[in-house]
Prior knowledge:
Layout: E1 9-14, H1 18-28, E2 34-40, E3 55-59, H2 65-73, E4 80-84, H3 90-95, E5 101-105, H4 111-122, E6 127-128, H5 130-137, H6 156-166, H7 171-178, H8 182-196, H9 201-210
Parallel strand pairs: 1-2, 1-3, 3-4, 4-5, 5-6
Amino acid sequence: MGAGERDLIRILVLAASLAERAGLRALLSVDEDVEVVAETAALSELESMPANIDVLVSVAEAVTFPELGDFLAGVEPPLAMLMLTDQPQAAQELSELPTRAWGLLPLDTSEEELLAAVNALYEGLLVGTPALIQPLLGQAVLTYEDEDALVETLTDRESEVLELLAQGLANKQIALELGISEHTIKFHISSIYTKLGVTNRIEAVRLGVRLGLVVL
Length: 216
């Protein structure tokens, strides 16, 4: 492995139906630095825990929270956990599991959102759309209409990324412009979305303009 490169992000996919597992594998495999090393319809069907898993990606209906708690408690080092669900109440239960990072995305999440979430979780960040995590965080998450203040101020690098998003540059173009990896760009974009309380580039740029963070 060369200087500046990192290990593959190793994924365990948990989904009840073959179609769901195949769909998640296809979306995740778009990123050459993400590897789905195992998939299962139920945790009870795993003969043994695959080695060095970084992120467990699960469809909510495939598992109960008590079952998840028992499973995760026996995993060292702790995993990051991404759950796909449309139920906001899942945030509270997920936050209480023994994970090193966790996230919630809707069932119809896009390829870009899924990969950005996996990269952010790999870095230890909380991930989630405002609609799913706001019941847990209360007013800590900025809603789209709430333009007076950010949860956290954007870093200088995040501000640079947001400016380039506003110019319509793709992730790879932003990475070349700033001289950093495309994975790091995905990490910054995920953090920007969380801080602004938005779920896509259009909303991020629009709110960034209204808050004076972006000059068009």
